[in-house]
């Protein structure tokens, strides 16, 4: 009798265990937290195109040295020659670096006599970032240095191709002793410049065209704007908690969720975003900050056209990154009437503390195209001398577009722009209509 009782008890225990297993499998209680966190919010739909870091790093200009003191300059707008040369160099390998003082080579003699191509980046680019674009050996002692020029030339003295990377300190160069570039490669690069506009320079620092340039047109471009609601959806984790601090019909608009702030001005054309909760201590790694800045723009507004990583700004706390906007492969410089043409972010250990950008989205329709002429020769050189002072010298000259706003269109005016040694970019000369060529009677 006792044995039967034990068997019945064992059967009931097994049955109870099976029932518990059933309820656990098919009737699991909801274990989600009652309070939502920032991670619970749905990611906003992207607004603009995404990009990658390697597409944001490219030379500001290429100087082609053709021997016999003949030169020309390619800008990103010089298509397809600029792109052909850059694409060819991207697949070459640069290895075996050796550091030398900058006077290891007579550079004035090289530029006048030897065929070569000089890549100028405008702002110094760390080797770490250059490795995103070129196949550079990173396993050498000075790989944490920054570079502002790469010069590749066929040396007549040594009957070989030499490749030098110029340190931003102005005192050292790094020669790649195992670069897979031949004399035929250099001759091919230089060949692209044989029939292009001739440029000249007194000291090899700033090159100017010998004649006026007529390759750029003035044009009007249609545009739209990102709305304030779209930017709130992209920048605040819960737009529903955002409140308006100040909303003026003709002035700046301010919004906050208690931790982050958004300021919209210029009639909805420019925004400034701040995040007060970003970390404020610790070291800032440039590579981490640049990568984080690219990712942040990808997710919060995207890229309207081509941009270039132009410089690192160093505020009191954090690291500032600026991206220069291009149109028609020429940089856009802001006019007095509108702030437009760049994005700027401040980061602290990879966290974005501030974000400034235009909310204007350029369209594809170009109208009212007009031929324009930019000055050259002695007239341009005189204009360059006029903007220089004892403390500010011209370090780079380039064609650019200056925008002006008129209702629902932006007008892009071709100009010569110069970057000064102080870091400021100034407009040297506006363009003018080309002279009318009158037919002989």
TrEMBL record:
Regulatory protein YycH domain residues are 3-419
| Domain of life where this protein originates | Bacteria
InterPro entries per the UniProt record, alphabetical: YycH, YycH/YycI_2
Q: Which residues form the signal peptide?
A: none
Pfam families from the xrefs?
YycH
Q: What is this protein called?
A: Regulatory protein YycH domain-containing protein
Q: Which organism is it from?
A: Cohnella kolymensis
